[in-house]
């Protein structure tokens, strides 16, 4: 089975949506949360995480937002969990996301789109090391 890195972004925590979002993940058959931590992410961690976006116009505002309050970082294991969590999240732009998805149900703003989930096996491996170093 697979493992993926999920972040509940500061907007999700501020709006009291931790339980709602984690509940949806927990209810998927055969998926297990294997690590979970509430923490305010620091800039260095996010620069590594979002390195591919450095130089884009949304990069600085994104880091500003992502350091604006606590996030929840979690690892989820299970069958096709990488693809599954992208589907559960919906597309980056919440207005384009279908109702029933997390972004589609709760989001309106591209930057404040509630959740991050690794987009491939390579990303998952890279990101798990960033947010949960020393675990395997
Ligand atoms: P993540 O799961 O957070 O990585 O989102 P994603 O994979 O759906 O999007 P991507 O990796 O392309 O962008 C990372 C994050 O940057 C997004 O989740 C948004 O919060 C933000 N972002 C991406 N594109 C834009 C944009 O065009 N405008 C703004 N304001 N924010 C953007
Ligand atoms: Mg991404």
Task: Looking at this protein, list some descriptive labels.
Alpha-Beta Plaits; 136 residues; alpha+beta; 7 helices; binds magnesium ion; binds guanosine-5'-triphosphate; single chain; four-stranded antiparallel beta sheet; 4 strands
Q: What would you call the structural class?
A: alpha+beta
Pick out the low-confidence regions.
none
Shape: globular
Compute the average pLDDT.
98
Q: Give, in spatial order, the strands making up the sheet with the most strands.
A: 2-3-1-4
The N- to C-terminal Cα distance equals 14 Å
Radius of gyration: 14 Å
- What would CATH call the homologous superfamily? Nucleoside diphosphate kinase-like domain
Q: Briefly, what CATH class? A: Alpha Beta
Main β-sheet: number of strands, strand sense, barrel status? 4 strands, antiparallel
Strands, count: 4
Number of helical regions: 7
What's the CATH topology label? Answer: Alpha-Beta Plaits
Order of helices and strands: EHHEHHEHHEH
Total tally of structural domains: 1
Ligand inventory reads: guanosine-5'-triphosphate, magnesium ion
Outline of the structure:
This protein is α+β, with helices and mostly antiparallel strands and 136 residues long. The protein contains 7 helices and 4 strands.
